[in-house]
Each structure stands twice: as structure tokens, then as C-alpha cells.
Amino acid sequence: MKRRAFIRDVAVGGLALRWAPGLLAGQAAPALPHLGVAEGASPYAITKEAVAAIGGMSRFVARGDKVVVKPNIGWDRTPEMAACTNPEVVKALVELAQEAGAKSVIVIDNTTNQARRCYIRSGIQEAVKQAGGTMLFVDEHRVKKMSLGGEWLKEWDIVLDVIEADKIINVPIAKHHSLCRVTLGMKNWLGGISGARNQLHQRIDEAVVDLAAFFKPALTVLDAYRILVRNGPQGGRISDTELRETVVAGVDAAAVDAMGASFFELAPQDVPYLRMARERGLGRIDLEGLNIDKRKI
To answer: What is the reported pTM?
Structure first.
């Protein structure tokens, strides 16, 4: 409930207190960018810079919050293979959430390959340990079938340890995908559910949009430091990857994914689930109309 209230408050102007001095003087509140985009050689540093560009982590996480960070840790691959979220990106977000006053920061994903191998080989388990966060495995006793209210996906098995957080930070990696062209933030929610997920491949784009409408993260941070451009979603060769040294952060998950699509030379309209998300009112995909703060460090 706290997470839903937070999202609602931001939408109706909950940032007013942050800019109170200007408002009391009768001045308009400064407009925050829709997206923060940071480029640089350090995935850790550019993650912090991208979040800073849209107001900083204290805009999203309040003191005492229970925070879940949801990366893509689906595959038994090293960071160089770009199949899982870069561990330094995850580490930066865990630290930022703690600095903002989070009571706890949990990192979790429902992996495709064996979870313990994925957590270790991706480098994420060690990164989270260094940052002082908690790695959590999906417990099938902590899964509940829930109504999603989707247009196609009416109900599914949801990982309770994800949705019971006060704030969720979605942190996917940008990858090619053999079924839906690219997997970005909205597709990353398949790691927040359980059950026979392969059944969703029948209508993957509709499933992605229905899940994105259900989860509603407070913040989406897209790891595009090294992206997987071929043989996704798991790759297997460094030659399948490209170094982009970029991280994108935003409240609007559709807008973040629209920017992510551009790294693959795709217009957002070329990605079916992004078109559906726009039509459902889940966010904007018109990059030319967005306020984007781009930084290089």
C-alpha cells in the first residue's frame, strides 16, 4: 500500500516539498527531466549520475522503506556476456537506497538457469554483499496466484517478496530477444513471477504489458553499459555484445524502454509491446517530446 501511495503522490505533485522554498516565493517548481542518461567508463559511477539527473534517490526512497531491487539475473553468465544486469549497476542502486534511509534493501530475481549459479556467476551476489544489501532466493512458498486485471493475462503466480516492498526499483539490462525483439524494463517482470512462464511466450507482448501494468516500480534504471545485440536473451559469446557505457533512469518505464530500443536502432513504434503500452496509457514513447538530461562523466 505504501508503494502505491508513493506512486500516486508523485503523480499529483508530491515533489512540492522538495521545492518548497521556490513555491513559497511564488515561483514555479523546476521541472525534473523525464529521463536521466549518463555515459562513462564506470557502470557504478554512471548509475549514480543517471539517478542524480532525475532528482536523486531520496525522491523515490523514504527513511524506513523496505526496498526491493529487481535486476535480471536469469542466466548463468559472467558480466562480460551481457545476459544479466551489470553487478556494479546493482551495487550503486543498493548503496543509494541505503543512503536515502531504506530500512532494508533486498535483491531478488526468479532466474531461468539454476539460481545459485546465476547469483554467483553474474557477480551480483558479491556486489550486493559489498554494498550491504540482502540477496534473496525465490521461495515457492512465498508465491501467490493473484488477479492482474490484464487485457490478456488475467491472473498469475506472483513472487510476494517483490510486491510486498514499499518501493520497487526495476533494473534490467538491455538485450536482444528472439521473440519480442528486445528485452528491457517491462519484460524484466517475468522475473517477478513464478509458474509456467514459457506459456507466456504464446503472446509475449500482451503478457509484458499486462505485467508492467501490474508491478509499477517507483524507479526504472536500464543497464546499457554492455548490451546483448544478438542471440538473446542469454547470448554466450562476447562477440554478441556491444559496449555502450550508458545507464538510463526514469519514473516512466515505457519512456526508459523507448530509449533502450534506440540502442538497437529500433524506433519505439517498432517494438509491439511499447506500442501497446502507449495505447494503454502506461507511459510515453515519444523520445523527441521528452525532457532528457544527458551527462558524460
So the answer is: 0.90
- The per-residue DSSP string of 99-158 comes to HTT-SEEEEE---SS-HHHHHHHTSHHHHHHHHT-EEE---GGGEEEEE---SS--EEEE
Cell of 179: 521473440
Point out the least confidently predicted range of 16-20, 101-105, 262-266: 16-20
Give 89-125 pLDDT, tens digit per residue.
Answer: 999 999 999 999 999 999 999 999 999 999 999 999 9
Residues with Cβ within 8 Å of 49's Cβ and at least 6 positions away in sequence, in order, are 36, 38, 40, 247, 295, 297
Domain 34-296 CATH superfamily: LarA, N-terminal domain (3.40.50.11440)
> Domain-by-domain residue ranges, the chain?
1-31, 34-296
Cβ neighbors of 100 (< 8 A, separation 6 or more) are 56, 57, 58, 60, 61, 62, 63, 65
Question: Which pLDDT does position 28 carry in this prediction?
Answer: 59
